[in-house]
Write a sequence for this structure.
């Protein structure tokens, strides 16, 4: 088999650690089949069948809330976060810090998100920029030449579906109901930090604006207009061509290595009986954010803002514009994304609005995306502390949610898959292009997710990825080189494994630390098994509302009353033979401490989804839901036009034609409420109709490879020298990696012939050395 050739090639690169043994070795115990010694085969209780696995995919039960760090048994809640700092300083600001021995400002200039609701993109990009600057030790010295990643690239490709047939995923992505037929339609789609995570995870950005003019935050004609309330400031017009060519989707100026779903300082507990929301302060959330800042990673976070854009009245219940200090003292829902760049434990509670002051001192230093007086050109706007674009946010603000930070592999590293202009050097393999609303399902039995990929060229595998949604998760990565004609992800030879522990949920990238070379046309199975602190097994999923789900979910409808930016639905493309969910029946443990799951039952995700959709369609047939959905679609265009007029800064409630706008808005909302009421009995998790309300995507397990050049073999992470010695009395050569053994034998009359070869520190196949005391002969074998 080809897979045997690959493993033999890997082992030929170097003798494994067994060669470091003493000169005289007892014969190692070897399994009867010639493989490494098996010490135990453990039957796994409760293993799921293919049918059970398939049915579980669209059931929606046992889902995990990634923000739930305060539930019973949470190690973060009960034990506190493990800070890298033995004693955190009382204040810290990335604008005046030292990284890699270089002091300076590690925050890029404040920008302006108008005219769109793209705060989430600006806050995620701001966090990414600071992370990259601190990673490379490159502070901002000149604002005009500072790192400037494209918020427009992130926002556009979050909402713009795939427009080519990459891996058969054409058409996958988000669809905006706001204005889908215009060249700026994708910019109307709102988002969240998870969208950024999934885009970056697919090596779609972040990309520097200098790569192409279309990445700058304006339309193709570079048109601006005065802001009606304060015409001295100009912002880009929302009309015209805001599109970015599909060829720029696969650009990345830095590669996401890991993201961190942090615990929020604000925990909201909802009474299941009354629905009453109660705020609980979570100090571990505050500590986690501080620790990320001290590591050089700014933190994107959601917050309630009384303004939806600059120019509106800022003074309100929760923000004091004399000090630009915000404290929300009720469990408000968030509506804005910002970026935390520092903190001050001693910031006085008295600086917040009287009657709305927090229980103690302490505030985060926050970068907003509504411009500043220091901003360049048309991004200028007078907002924040001294017009800086920054404000203070109490640790105890009750609207805080979904803090997240990012860590990147940057051009300073030598394992990038992209060149300086963001173009690909290697090949990425993935199927999960839907930015999505990811979640996960848990299982009591051992359960894994997997993708199969076929090489498009002779390749060396570089890294694999996983997504986790929970804290303190153990992840097992397995890469199988598959047999010809394999239809499941473990039908082949296990070529590489790694066990990792992740404190926070998020995206994780694992480097493959030994060369695995594959020929064009060969396939690999990448298997991910994630274990939670309570012993359950988590399978991360990527999904979002289908068109029916988006239109019939009251939460979404409520969000679009005042803005169209969240009105979207998704399409996932899941083909046969791409993603799988499996459950093993055995765990084989070997003498060297390694282990391998076996006896898998695998369910193809495509088949499982099709079966779920068939059950859903049968359940909904004849309910009249299709007609109600169409009524909402028909009412939507008039609603959009009326809503646009009434949300204009120049609109007045004294307008004599106000009912011309109110009537279509009411008609749309009535249609929406009717659809919601009709679908409520069918949209519950676990029901047979549940699958109709969501669009699922492939598992977010990616693989990156680079072209294999036989003239330039792949570099190895960690190498070891193998020495050759000669015994002139017996004519024997001996090979060893043990420097002490080498010196001892050289001092006993053996000739030291130097380094025989340099090999990887580890290998796919161990090489054993045996000694025959009767003849004095050494034998080397992989059998």
């Amino acid at each position: 088999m080809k897979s045997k050739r690959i493993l033999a090639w890997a082992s030929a690169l170097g003798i494994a650690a067994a060669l470091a043994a003493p000169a005289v070795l007892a014969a190692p115990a070897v399994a009867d089949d010639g493989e490494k010694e098996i010490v135990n085969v453990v039957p796994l209780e409760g293993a799921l069948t293919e049918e059970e696995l398939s049915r579980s995919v669209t059931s929606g039960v046992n889902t995990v809330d990634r923000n739930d760090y305060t539930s019973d048994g949470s190690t973060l809640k009960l034990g506190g976060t493990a800070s890298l700092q033995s004693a955190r300083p009382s204040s810290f600001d990335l604008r005046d810090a030292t990284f890699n021995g270089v002091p300076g400002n590690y925050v890029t200039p404040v920008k302006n998100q108008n005219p769109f609701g793209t705060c989430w993109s600006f806050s995620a990009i701001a966090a990414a920029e600071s992370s990259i600057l601190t990673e490379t030790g490159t502070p901002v010295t000149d604002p005009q030449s500072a790192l400037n990643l494209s918020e427009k690239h992130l926002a556009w490709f979050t909402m713009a579906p795939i427009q080519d047939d990459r891996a058969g995923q054409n058409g996958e992505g988000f669809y905006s109901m706001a204005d889908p037929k215009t060249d700026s339609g994708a910019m109307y789609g709102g988002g969240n930090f998870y969208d950024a995570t999934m885009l970056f995870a697919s090596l779609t950005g972040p990309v520097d604006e200098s790569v192409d003019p279309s990445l700058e935050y304006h339309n193709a004609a570079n048109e601006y207009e005065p802001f009606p309330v304060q015409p001295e400031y100009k912002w880009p017009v929302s009309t015209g061509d805001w599109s970015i060519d599909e060829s720029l989707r696969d650009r990345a100026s830095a590669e996401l290595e890991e993201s961190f779903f942090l615990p929020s300082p604000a925990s909201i507990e909802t009474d299941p009986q009354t629905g009453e929301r109660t705020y609980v302060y979570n100090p571990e959330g505050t500590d986690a954010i501080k620790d990320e800042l001290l590591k050089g990673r700014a933190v994107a976070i959601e917050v309630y803002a009384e303004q939806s854009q600059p120019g509106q009245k800022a003074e309100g219940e929760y923000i004091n514009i004399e000090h630009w200090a915000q404290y929300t003292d009720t469990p408000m829902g968030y509506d804005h994304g910002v970026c935390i760049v520092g903190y001050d434990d001693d910031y006085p509670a008295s600086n917040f609005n009287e009657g709305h002051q927090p229980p103690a001192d302490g505030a985060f230093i926050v970068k907003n995306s509504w411009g500043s007086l220091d901003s360049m050109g048309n991004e200028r706007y007078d907002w924040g502390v001294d017009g800086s674009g920054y404000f203070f946010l109490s640790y105890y603000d009750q609207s805080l949610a979904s803090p997240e930070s990012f860590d990147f592999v940057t051009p300073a590293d030598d394992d990038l898959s992209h060149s300086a202009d963001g173009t690909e050097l290697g090949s990425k393999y993935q199927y999960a292009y839907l930015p999505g609303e990811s979640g996960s399902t848990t299982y009591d039995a051992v359960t894994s997710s997997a993708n199969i990929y076929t090489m498009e060229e002779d390749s060396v595998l570089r890294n694999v990825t996983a997504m986790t949604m929970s804290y303190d998760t153990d992840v097992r990565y397995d890469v199988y080189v598959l047999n010809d004609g394999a239809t499941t992800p473990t039908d082949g030879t296990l070529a590489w494994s790694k066990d990792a522990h992740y404190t926070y949920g998020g995206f994780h990238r694992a480097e493959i630390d030994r060369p695995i070379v594959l020929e064009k046309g060969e396939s690999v199975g990448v298997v991910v098994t994630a274990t939670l602190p309570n012993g359950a097994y988590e399978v991360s999923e990527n999904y979002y509302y289908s068109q029916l789900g988006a239109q019939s979910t009251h939460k979404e409808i409520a969000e679009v009353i005042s803005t169209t930016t969240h009105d979207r639905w998704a399409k996932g493309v899941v083909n046969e033979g791409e993603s799988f969910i499996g459950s093993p029946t055995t765990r084989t443990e070997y003498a060297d401490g390694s282990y391998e799951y076996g006896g898998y039952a695998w369910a193809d995700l495509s088949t499982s989804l099709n079966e779920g959709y068939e059950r859903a369609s049968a359940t909904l047939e004849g309910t009249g839901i299709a007609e109600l959905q169409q009524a909402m679609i028909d009412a939507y265009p008039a609603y959009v036009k009326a809503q646009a007029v009434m949300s204009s800064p120049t609109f007045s409630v004294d307008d004599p034609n106000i009912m011309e706008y109110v009537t279509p808005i009411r008609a749309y909302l009535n249609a929406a409420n009717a659809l919601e009421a009709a679908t409520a009995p069918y949209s519950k998790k676990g029901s047979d109709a549940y699958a109709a309300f969501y669009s699922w995507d492939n598992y977010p397990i990616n693989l990156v490879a680079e072209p294999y050049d036989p003239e330039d073999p792949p570099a190895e992470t960690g190498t070891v020298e193998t020495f050759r010695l000669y015994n002139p009395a017996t004519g024997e050569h001996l090979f060893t990696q043990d420097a002490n053994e080498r010196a001892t034998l050289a001092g006993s009359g053996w000739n030291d012939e130097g380094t025989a070869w340099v090999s990887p520190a580890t290998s796919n196949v161990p090489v054993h050395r045996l000694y025959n005391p009767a003849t004095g002969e050494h034998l080397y074998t992989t059998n």
About this structure: Residues 1-34, 71-85, 560-566 have pLDDT under 50 and may be disordered.
